[in-house]
Amino acid sequence: MFRKRKRVGNARPSRTELHRAAAVREFTDRGWPQSTAALTALAMHPFDDGVEPVNGSWEDRTRRASMAFWMQMRLLENPESVASLARHALTGYRETAIAAGDPYYARRYDTTLEQSA
Fold first, then answer.
1. Cα angle for residues 93, 85, 38 (degrees, 5° grid)
2. What is the pTM of this model?
3. CA distance linking residue 101 with residue 1, whole number of Å
4. Beta partners for 3?
5. Which of 1, 7, 48, 55 is least surrounded by CB atoms within 10 angstroms?
6. Spatial distance between the Cα atoms of 95 and 102, rounded to a whole number of angstroms
7. CB atoms inside a 10 Å sphere around CB 75
């Protein structure tokens, strides 16, 4: 299955959670819808600090893909174009997680894509 790290007490947010929150705040300050900002932040930071990927080999591919997404996203100004690119990136992440047999991340990306539709 997957290994989940437990938070103890009032632990501070993880590094990835802080980065996602900062990205969402930056995008909403630009006037983007909250849903587009959250979708883009997840595509930029595809892994949760509390859950390690089941098979590490797909993690490297997904990290490279997230960097490629970020480079392409910087060139776009239109939030709808960025949202479309983020959905495409998350679909790729989901397919990679399914191929690697990682149920947590496959479900995580699938749920996010369903909510953004």
1. 75
2. 0.82
3. 9
4. 52
5. 1
6. 10
7. 9
